[in-house]
């Protein structure tokens, strides 16, 4: 992490996004919100982890469009192994895409340095978004400045793989942490209040009041005040002292000054914050372990929740990554035929029944061969498995009622009348 003196030297006051990443933004709850403090909230962590891990574990392929309109996997293209296997020398594909997606979810932008050997892309090296400032040159080109402990590096637009998150169409996506700072700040304050209450042995804060034996208010001397603190406060402070029973004497009385957790509805507030943070990410609360009222954890309803999340919550992230790959990593001359795609069918890897149903339907219409199914399931190929099959119960309507075995007319020949 950069020190304060380094930040002062390398960034100007106009780099507000960089300063926010280091020092956070103040919330109405009085708690500064930074990416680090946000990731300490269980729901925020769960949403980021769920989306990032789900996208990172989907199969990412590079496909080439054929002249006949079909397409095949471009396994021989240099970019295929880079995207599918190892984007750089230090990370696997899952680690790279997981971190890149997490950058989008936390900072609203993801950056990777494009390393080339001649015209060929040989590596994608992730860059911390909070260490990058972005501006446009007089010619209108984007320019990136990255600063870390090794110094400052300048990058042209063609040297950076940049994936923007949700935004208003500017050069950068909006940071979810900055935009959700009020919700996150309230969640941090609520967690802190609950934790301090537990640390205090579930006892509310307050004051000891002292009266002289004659019932009149009295003032303690400094020595008496320290003695009272040592005898009445310190032995009962902290969770390890919860349940201890004390004795008040000599005119001391206890006066509460805080609202008990029950009256403040701390538990209800924390449950509400779970749903609020999930709303920011578009994640159904049930997917992060929160069971809303009236919803069960299992059953056919969860399947519909998953489909809705895939369509409305996950699909926008997938499309952003796919289009960024096409624009930033594929040469303009090859964009008409090459494209990258994250296969959502990878979500069915844990559902053997769902996979079998899809394979069966695809094979009945000739959309897939038995050997292609064997390849996807890591099973051995077999002779004759490259043929395509169709369900024999499906015939053109004009041939319905004809005897089995009747020869179908060749294209262009008249259809014979059906025999009775």
Structure description:
The structure is a single chain. This protein has a three-stranded antiparallel sheet. The model has no long low-confidence stretch (mean pLDDT 79). α4 (42-56) packs across α6 (93-107), α4 (42-56) runs parallel beside α11 and α8 runs antiparallel to α11. By secondary structure, the protein is of the alpha+beta class. It has helices at 4-10, 16-23, 35-39, 42-56, 78-84, 93-107, 176-179, 181-199, 222-233, 261-264, 266-281, 300-328, 352-364, 370-376; strands at residues 60-65, 71-73, 109-117, 120-127, 132-136, 142-148, 151-156, 160-164, 206-210, 252-256, 338-342. The protein is built from 14 helices and eleven strands.
A few lines on this structure:
The chain has 14 helices and 11 strands. It has helices spanning 4-10, 16-23, 35-39, 42-56, 78-84, 93-107, 176-179, 181-199, 222-233, 261-264, 266-281, 300-328, 352-364, 370-376; strands at 60-65, 71-73, 109-117, 120-127, 132-136, 142-148, 151-156, 160-164, 206-210, 252-256, 338-342.
Attribute tags:
420 residues, 14 helices, single chain, three-stranded antiparallel β-sheet, alpha+beta, 15% strand
Topology:
Elements (H helix, E strand, L loop, with lengths): L3 H7 L5 H8 L11 H5 L2 H15 L3 E6 L5 E3 L4 H7 L8 H15 L1 E9 L2 E8 L4 E5 L5 E7 L2 E6 L3 E5 L11 H4 L1 H19 L6 E5 L11 H12 L18 E5 L4 H4 L1 H16 L18 H29 L9 E5 L9 H13 L5 H7 L44
Antiparallel strand pairs: 1-2, 1-11, 3-4, 3-8, 5-6, 6-7, 9-10
Helix pairs in contact: 4-6, 4-11, 8-11
């Amino acid at each position: 992490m950069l020190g304060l003196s380094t930040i002062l030297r390398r960034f100007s006051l106009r780099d507000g996004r960089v300063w926010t990443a280091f020092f956070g933004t103040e919330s109405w709850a009085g708690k500064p919100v930074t990416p680090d403090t946000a990731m300490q909230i269980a729901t925020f962590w769960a949403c980021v982890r769920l989306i990032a891990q789900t996208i990172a574990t989907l199969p990412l392929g590079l496909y080439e469009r054929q002249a006949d309109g079909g397409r095949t996997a471009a396994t021989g293209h240099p970019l295929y192994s880079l995207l599918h296997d190892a984007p750089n020398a230090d990370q696997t594909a899952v680690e790279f895409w997981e971190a890149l997606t997490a950058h989008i979810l936390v900072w609203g932008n993801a950056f990777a340095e494009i390393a080339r050997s001649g015209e060929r892309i040989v590596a994608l090296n992730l860059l911390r978004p909070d260490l990058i400032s972005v501006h446009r040159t007089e010619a209108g080109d984007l320019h990136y400045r990255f600063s870390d402990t090794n110094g400052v590096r300048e990058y042209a637009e063609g040297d950076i793989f940049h994936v923007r998150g949700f935004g208003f169409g500017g050069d950068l996506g909006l940071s979810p942490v900055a935009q959700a700072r009020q919700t996150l700040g309230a969640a941090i304050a609520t967690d802190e209040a609950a934790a301090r209450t537990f640390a205090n042995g579930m006892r509310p804060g307050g004051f000891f009041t002292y009266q002289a034996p004659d019932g009149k208010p009295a003032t303690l001397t400094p020595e008496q005040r320290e003695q009272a603190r040592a005898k009445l406060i310190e032995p009962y402070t902290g969770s390890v002292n919860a349940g201890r029973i004390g004795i008040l004497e000599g005119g001391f009385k206890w006066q509460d000054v805080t609202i008990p957790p029950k009256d403040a509805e701390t538990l209800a507030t924390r449950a509400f914050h779970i749903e609020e943070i999930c709303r920011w990410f578009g994640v159904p609360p049930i997917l992060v372990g929160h069971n809303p009222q009236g919803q069960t954890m299992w059953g056919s309803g969860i399947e519909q929740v998953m489909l809705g999340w895939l369509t409305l919550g996950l699909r926008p992230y997938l499309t952003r990554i796919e289009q960024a790959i096409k624009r930033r990593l594929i040469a303009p001359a090859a964009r008409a035929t090459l494209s990258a795609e994250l296969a959502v069918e990878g979500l069915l890897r844990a559902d053997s029944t769902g996979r079998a149903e899809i394979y069966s339907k695809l094979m009945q219409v000739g959309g897939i061969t038995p050997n292609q199914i064997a390849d996807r399931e890591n099973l051995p190929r077999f002779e004759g498995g490259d043929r395509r099959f169709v369900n024999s119960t499906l015939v053109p309507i004009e041939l319905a009622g004809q005897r089995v075995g009747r020869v179908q007319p060749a294209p262009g020949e008249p259809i014979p009348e059906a025999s009775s």
